[in-house]
Amino acid sequence: MLVQPYNLMAHGFLLFLLFSYIISTNIHACKQTERSSLLSFASTLSSPSLNWTSLDCCHWKGITCDQDGWVTRLLLPSEGFKGGISPSSLRNLTHLTHLNLSHNSLYDSLETQFFLFFNRLEILDLSYNRLFGELPLSPPSSSIRTIDLSSNHFFGAIPSSFFQQASNLTSFNVSNNTFTGHVPSSICLHYSPSLRLLDFSSNVFSGNLTPGLGKCSQLQVFRAGHNNLSGLFPEDIYNATKLEEIALPLNSLHGAISDKIANLTNLAILDLSFNHFGGKLPLNLGKLSKLKFVTFDFNNLEGALPPSLMNCTNLVELHFRKQQLGRRYHHA
Ligand SMILES: *[C@@H]1O[C@H](CO)[C@@H](O)[C@H](O)[C@H]1NC(C)=O
Ligand SMILES: *[C@@H]1O[C@H](CO)[C@@H](O)[C@H](O)[C@H]1NC(C)=O
Ligand SMILES: *[C@@H]1O[C@H](CO)[C@@H](O)[C@H](O)[C@H]1NC(C)=O
Ligand SMILES: *[C@@H]1O[C@H](CO)[C@@H](O)[C@H](O)[C@H]1NC(C)=O
Ligand SMILES: *[C@@H]1O[C@H](CO)[C@@H](O)[C@H](O)[C@H]1NC(C)=O
Ligand SMILES: *[C@@H]1O[C@H](CO)[C@@H](O)[C@H](O)[C@H]1NC(C)=O
Ligand SMILES: *[C@@H]1O[C@H](CO)[C@@H](O)[C@H](O)[C@H]1NC(C)=O
Ligand SMILES: *[C@@H]1O[C@H](CO)[C@@H](O)[C@H](O)[C@H]1NC(C)=O
Ligand SMILES: *[C@@H]1O[C@H](CO)[C@@H](O)[C@H](O)[C@H]1NC(C)=O
Ligand SMILES: *[C@@H]1O[C@H](CO)[C@@H](O)[C@H](O)[C@H]1NC(C)=O
């Protein structure tokens, strides 16, 4: 008889232990709907390396959940995935903030409503896959910070409306695809306080670079080489004074380089090779003391290199070969 209260207490203690176990494991335990979404995503891919078997998907490789058990990160680059990602089993993972599936062999196109499903997405890296088709019609939400769709087979134009909500976008890389139409320089006209990297290189963009880039006050890297661009070097780019790299090789741009280029005091890389630039190089070019790599190869420039370049002590490479109109110089 004396034993019973003790027994009760012991039972109570065990129950307490059981409850706290359930509670503590439930805090980060994944929702079963999220688990089945992940499994259905995995089932469309072939990958030997995924071991997604345990009950709590929040502890699976590549998965991060928030406190309520929603999957927020899916980071599985270089997993050897082959397969389609559409019609998307991922679309039910509505709390995703980070999606990195770069360096796999995913094929398919992105659903037109892709960014509507993932309206909390901050980081999207689908680079180095075999994705094709046009960009989704629905634009990314204001939470987006990084978009890397480079080295795929995407095509079509990039509508300027694509950026209409992207006020926190810092990096946009679509290089090495087959996009056509204009380079959407208007990207800077919407909201652009945070844009730092823009890479449009190795596509089939054509027409001139429309004004707008100068409004990207934080822009550090602008690449649009290896396209079909024509027209003049955009004047307002001289206003983007944070620029460290301008790379526009292998296009059909023409006109003279203005002495306003001296405003770009952070410039280290300037690649204007294989274009139709003409006139004389601005005498004040040497004011750009951070210049490291400069090439004007294969243009129509006249005259000699400005002597002020002698002042650029950081200069490692300077190329000025094969100017079709002017005299020939060879520096390397
Ligand atoms: C996604 O959610 C819908 C509606 O809740 C459901 O019908 C569908 O089966 C889910 N898909 C996956 C792959 O879980
Ligand atoms: C898969 O994961 C389970 C539990 O997480 C583990 O017991 C098992 O050894 C793993 N298998 C492989 C092949 O890694
Ligand atoms: C995606 O993952 C790869 C490999 O870890 C990494 O190099 C890359 O920076 C990641 N992408 C982003 C946008 O963080
Ligand atoms: C934009 O970024 C800032 C700073 O990182 C953050 O406070 C803000 O919530 C972000 N805005 C949106 C709409 O995500
Ligand atoms: C854009 O992506 C390509 C790979 O597809 C990479 O080589 C390049 O450096 C990236 N651009 C920037 C500005 O980081
Ligand atoms: C361009 O993309 C293809 C895949 O689409 C890739 O194999 C190749 O390495 C990429 N080139 C560069 C320079 O990144
Ligand atoms: C290149 O641009 C020119 C002039 O803008 C245009 O006529 C031509 O069709 C473009 N070529 C390709 C392959 O887009
Ligand atoms: C460059 O900036 C100056 C001063 O902010 C402004 O007056 C001028 O209109 C800008 N030029 C272009 C081409 O946007
Ligand atoms: C460049 O700098 C000069 C003075 O250094 C200034 O008058 C001009 O507005 C600046 N901006 C442009 C786009 O030339
Ligand atoms: C090089 O810089 C010095 C000091 O700033 C200046 O006096 C000189 O004129 C510059 N040389 C050239 C060729 O611009």
From TrEMBL:
The record's section on Pfam families has: LRR_1, LRR_8, LRRNT_2
Offer a single GO CC term for the protein: membrane
Domain (Leucine-rich repeat-containing N-terminal plant-type): residue spans on this chain: 33-66
| Signal peptide (UniProt feature, chain positions) | 1-24
Highest taxon of source? Eukaryota
Key words of the record: Glycoprotein, Leucine-rich repeat, Membrane, Receptor, Repeat, Signal
Q: Where in the cell is it found?
A: Membrane
Query: PANTHER family of this UniProt entry?
Result: LEUCINE-RICH REPEAT SERINE/THREONINE-PROTEIN KINASE 1, LEUCINE-RICH REPEAT SERINE_THREONINE-PROTEIN KINASE 1
Name under which the protein is recorded: Tyrosine-sulfated glycopeptide receptor 1-like
